Amino acid sequence: xHGADGYNNTFSALSSITIGENVESIGANAFRGGHLNYxxxxxxxxxNKIDMLGESPFTSIAxxxxxxxxxxxxxxxARLCYNLQRIYSIMIPSNIKSIGNEAFRGANLSSVTIPExxxxxxxxxxxxxxxxxxxxxxxxxxTYLVEAVNKDLSSYTIQTGTRxxxxxxx
Length: 170
Known about the structure:
The chain has strands spanning about 15-20, 40-45, 65-70, 75, 90, 100, 110-115, 120, 135, 140, 145-150, 165. The chain is mostly beta strands. The N and C termini lie far apart (about 50 Å). It is globular. It is about 0% helix and about 25% strand. A hairpin with a 2-residue loop joins strand 10 and strand 11 (about 145-150).
C-alpha cells in the first residue's frame, strides 16, 4: 500500500536484507519508501561486483542500520552509506582492503574502526561526518584524518598512528 508520504510502505516488518554475490548494481533510492523495521535493519553485504552505487540507495530506511560484510568481500563500494542518518558506528572487518569514494560521506557516524588490512581509502570517504571525534582541532575516523576543523590555525600536530590523510583535509 502507499502511505501518507506516497511511497510504498509494504516492508515495515523487514529486519534484514541480503545483497548476494551476483548483484552488480543497486539503483538510486532502491529501498525508498520502506519505513522498515524501527528496531533496526541488518544489511548482509556479500558482493564485490559493485564499485559504485546509485545515489542514496539506503537513505530512506528509517531505522538503525547495521552492515555485515561477507568473508569474500574485499572492498566497500563508493557511496555505500552516503548521507545515511541511521548508521552511528561501523567496524570494518579485516577482509576489507579498500574503501570507495564517498563511502561514508555525510553519514551520522560517531565511531569507525579501520583495520590494518585497508590499504586504500577513497576521495572524501568520511567527509561531512560531523559526529566523528575531534583531536587537537582535527576530525578523525580512526586512523584516517578527515579534516582540520579550524582552518585558521598556523600549525597542526597529526596524531601518531594516522595512516591516511583525506582529500582537501587542510
